[in-house]
Amino acid sequence: MHALQVSLGHASQQGPRPRNEDFVGAATPEGEELAAKGVLLAVADGVGGHAHGREAAEQTVRSLLADYYATPQTWGVDKSIDTVLGAVNRWLLGQSAKSRDYAGMATTLTAVVLRGRRHHVAHVGDSRAYRWRDGALLRLTEDHTWAHPEFDNVLRRAIGLEARLLVDHDDGELAVGDCFVLVTDGVWATLGDAGIAAVMAAQAGGRGGGHGGSDAIDQAHAADHAEGGAGAQAAADALVLGAIRRGTADNATALVARIDALPPDTLRDRLADSRRLSLPPRLKPGQVLDGLRIEELLHESRVTLLYRVTRLADGAALVLKTLLPDADDEAASALVREEWLARRVPGRGFPRVCEHAQRDHLYYLMSWHEGETLKAALGRGHRYAPHELVGIGCALLGRVAALHRLGIVHRDIKPDNVHVDRGGELRLLDLGVAAADAEDLAEINNPGTPSYMAPELVAGSPASESSDLYACGVTLYELLTRKYPYGEIEPFQRPHFGAPVSPVRYRPDTPAWLEAVLLKACAREQKDRFETAEEFLLALERGASRPLATRRHVPLVERNPRLALKLLAGASLLLNLVLLFLLSRH
Questions:
Q1: Closest-CA residue to 339 (of 441, 468, 465)
Q2: Confidence class of residue 346 from pLDDT cuts 50, 70 and 90?
Q3: CATH topology of domain 288-367
Q4: Is domain 5-261 classified as CATH 3.60.40.10?
Q5: pTM, whole model, 2 decimals?
Q6: Residue 310 above 60 pLDDT?
């Protein structure tokens, strides 16, 4: 099984400038990090001959190469790069604000991530990225300069230029033989696209790029990987020397990356090969599968099955999650993605995915914990006191906050998916319909349960962190009252969301501060809810000591009994007058 193989070459010369303000770098990880984050290439050009342009370019590239790989694997490439560059942009602006000597310190940046079988481009400024394939050169970036002829070399976007950083992103498929060319304006402005294409054609030596995809082609590229590296370096050298010889007025920098081999077209985590592994049949207690003895069926949904099993090798109690025997390929792929996602959540507060060397069927294993779900506790008649609710809410929101920091939206938070073990540890279950920035997850169950779905989801908007927090609010409301703030919603029903019912109607002992927290969490409009899990958690922790700045709704008869009686008497008198008038007309 091939991994991604890339040959690299780079060159940079000062040219006629007094100093070289360009900076170029690349990171080529191995193993799991290569599969999860890919190869990162970057060139930067310090702005306008500024005294600290080189420092800005170098800091930007070095920060990107280091910090991109420190971002969670569950984040998408766009989010990871935007987060890192946002921090660099703030640092450059801070340096500029400190001293007049640093004012205007900024840089361009063009970066390419090669991951799996796709490339991702991130770009700010007027450095450029090209792709050379099958003898054709394609420019992948647009210059961020002003359109006016007198200002066509003046940047309108750069890192460190203004507080709001806008990065261009694009992506596409990779092919064996593709060459990615990253150059600063000292190269492309001198050679032009035609000159760059001529250099790449000459370096290709008639070998060309390839879509081949056959084993023979892959083996040929793997065999001359070293030659490919020499070719990439020769191309980078030729681009820079060509610009110098043609009289470039600027620094000249080029980075060339050639795709020598691609990984198979499977999930980037390579946790399982769903086409190779067959689904197990329906299993009964006492049966043995891959060294696992089935103890009981825990749950069956429209597509999935959960069994409690014992591993015969060590006696460990585990949970086996698989699919019904007639599940389709899409469900199988989604189950593999779910396992990948489950491996990347924190160890505490979630079931732990367990390794099993004997696995010959499509399933995955999780740790088993004695205890019960919150729904089961409600089913056996447990009545949650307000102080219990606060403890559960704080633990639940801590788990949700951990997911959101990883860029994961759970999408099905409800009492059925919250488990408390015998030691009191709360775990958030079932990532079957969760969505992450890094993956467009196919769904193997309905994405959400109607009574816990926020109004915007019913209206067709995608799930978000806000809809997760709404589901947390409904969950806590149900634990306290055994009701729902907008009533129970059946599947395929088109509910009308008015004002949420106060929990005091069902639980008169609800403290005013807790009522305010629950009503805010379950508010109809997103803008009226908690913005983050941390904010929601803080409101619960502070409780009565620092309640939310909202007024509790108290009926008029309780606030001002005398006024209520007067209004009632007035309404009665008016009704009597109307009746007398109607009777007098007959």
A1: 441
A2: confident
A3: Phosphorylase Kinase; domain 1 (3.30.200)
A4: yes
A5: 0.71
A6: yes
